[in-house]
Q: What sequence folds into this?
C-alpha cells in the first residue's frame, strides 16, 4: 500500500534545481517519515541531514516549502553547488484540538476523522472517554491547562473550545488567543461571548485584535439544535477555513 493509502505522515523531498557541483541532480527524491527514517536519497551528508530536519518540522505544520541550499556556505560541503528542494507534505493532516468531551465534542471528533483532520479531545472529567469507540481519535483526561502546556501548536492547528463549564471555556480561550493558529473557535451564546470579551479587555487577558480572530459563537450559522447538528455546523466551518487556506 502507498503512504497515502495507509495514512502515514511523511514529506516528499524533491530536488527541483541544481547548479555547480552537487551530490545529486534535479529530479532526485527522498521520502521522510515521522520517525526520521527515509526512503530514497538526495545525496547524503549534511545536506540530507538538514533536509530531514526541515521535513520533520513540515510533518508537524503540514505546509509545503521550497528552500534553496548553498552547499558550501550553508552546509560546509566542499562540492560548493546550489540545490533547490521542494518539500511536499503527504498524509500530514491538520491537528484538531477539541477541548471538551461532551456530546458536541464527541460528535465533532467523529465527523472530523473522515473529513481531513486529526482530532484529539481533552476533558477534565474522569471516565468520560470510557465508552468511546472512535478510531483515529486521541483522547486525554486531566487538567485542561496542563494539557494545553504539553501540546504543540502551529499554523496548521485548529482549536475548538466546547467544555462543560463557562469558566473552563474562558481559561482555554485566553491561553489560545495569542497563538498563531489556523482556526480558533468557542461555543457560546451572544451574551456569553460578550461577557468574555468584557472580562478579557478588563483583565488584559487578550487584545481586541486577538479576540476578533476567534470564531465565537462557533460554526456556520444555521438552525442547529441537537449536539450532532451543532457539531456539523462546526465541522462545516473547519472545512471552509481549511480549503480557503489551501487555496491561498
A:
Amino acid at each position: 500500500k502507498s503512504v497515502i493509502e495507509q495514512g502515514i505522515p511523511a514529506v516528499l523531498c524533491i530536488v527541483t534545481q541544481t547548479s555547480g557541483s552537487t551530490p545529486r541532480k534535479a529530479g532526485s527524491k527522498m521520502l521522510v517519515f515521522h520517525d526520521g527514517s527515509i526512503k530514497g536519497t538526495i545525496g547524503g551528508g549534511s545536506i540530507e541531514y538538514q533536509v530531514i530536519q526541515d521535513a520533520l518540522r513540515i510533518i508537524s505544520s503540514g505546509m509545503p516549502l521550497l528552500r534553496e541550499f548553498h552547499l558550501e556556505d550553508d552546509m560546509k560541503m566542499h562540492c560548493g553547488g546550489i540545490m533547490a528542494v521542494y518539500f511536499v507534505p503527504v498524509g500530514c493532516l491538520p491537528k484538531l484540538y477539541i477541548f471538551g468531551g461532551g456530546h458536541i465534542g464527541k460528535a465533532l471528533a467523529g465527523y472530523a476523522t473522515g473529513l481531513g483532520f486529526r482530532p484529539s479531545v481533552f476533558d477534565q472529567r474522569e471516565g468520560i472517554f470510557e465508552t468511546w469507540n472512535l478510531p483515529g481519535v486521541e483522547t486525554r483526561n486531566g487538567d485542561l491547562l496542563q494539557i494545553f502546556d504539553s501540546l504543540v501548536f502551529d499554523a496548521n492547528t485548529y482549536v475548538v473550545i466546547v467544555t462543560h463549564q463557562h469558566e473552563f471555556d474562558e481559561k482555554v480561550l485566553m491561553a489560545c488567543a495569542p497563538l498563531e493558529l489556523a482556526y480558533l473557535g468557542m461555543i457560546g451564546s451572544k451574551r456569553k461571548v460578550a461577557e468574555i470579551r468584557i472580562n478579557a479587555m478588563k483583565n488584559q487577558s487578550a487584545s481586541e485584535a486577538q479576540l476578533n480572530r476567534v470564531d465565537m459563537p462557533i460554526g456556520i450559522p444555521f438552525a442547529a439544535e441537537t449536539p450532532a447538528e451543532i457539531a456539523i455546523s462546526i465541522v462545516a466551518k473547519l472545512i471552509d477555513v481549511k480549503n480557503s487556506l489551501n487555496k491561498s
